[in-house]
Amino acid sequence: xxxxxxxxxxxxxxxxxxxxxxxxxxxxxxxxxxxxxxxxxxxxxxxxxxxxxxxxxxxxxxxxxxxxxxxxxxxxxxxxxxxxxxxxxxxxxxxxxxxxxxxxxxxxxxxxxxxxxxxxxxxxxxxxxxxxxxxxxxxxxxxxxxxxxxxxxxxxxxxxxxxxxxxxxxxxxxxxxxxxxxxxxxxxxxxxxxxxxxxxxxxxxxxxxxxxxxxxxxxxxxxxxxxxxxxxxxxxxxxxxxxxxxxxxxxxxxxxxxxxxxxxxxxxxxxxxxxxxxxxxxxxxxxxxxxxxxxxxxxxx
Length: 301
What we know:
alpha/beta, 44% helix
């Protein structure tokens, strides 16, 4: 469950790879890891946006070459290595992690954060939306996990953290493609953990509820996505990052993050086990979600 307030400041400086680093959870993780004096390879498809965010949030200096042994290009602190990465491309993944391994060393952890969502009823979704959702959310995580495993296995150590969702535990109508992709992420992560654990590599799947990121904004005006907003409130990126930083120390198999004073995590597990419960609870869940959507829209979201 939630472990807000955790840090990794007590750990020795380490090297982390974070995808989706130009916004949302990925950006917050990058900021928090750097603040704790760790070195970060921050990757995103939108490199110009990533560079702008790095400058805006004071994450520079960055090194476009390899950091020195002291941890940065100029020896003054942790490295921030910015890279373009299309998570849908297995070749991109191999190229990035091979370069990181050769020039910086084997990462202590690879965090697969990049994600994509567009709400809408499944039968109305264009083929391109389905393809992009599966390619980014599921295949991107699979490619990243496999590429990370290939460089971690010879070292006999490492940690892979994959971001799924509560929608990957309980099916969520209105975002069916997203829910399917996150079910895939969770199932894949739980399976691959059994493959890698005997070799000293830890694997964690993180299943958060609604988080206050641009992905929230993509759903707030869509009645189809009412289920998503059924918690007491959206979690902040700071809360999610804090919980993940703690998980980098404790290395749990699964981390479920639901909004405070809600039973979303427990209910998701129950509905996963007994799918018929969803239809019973649906009217209440939709009412709660629409109420939260209305509040957010009234606040200017």
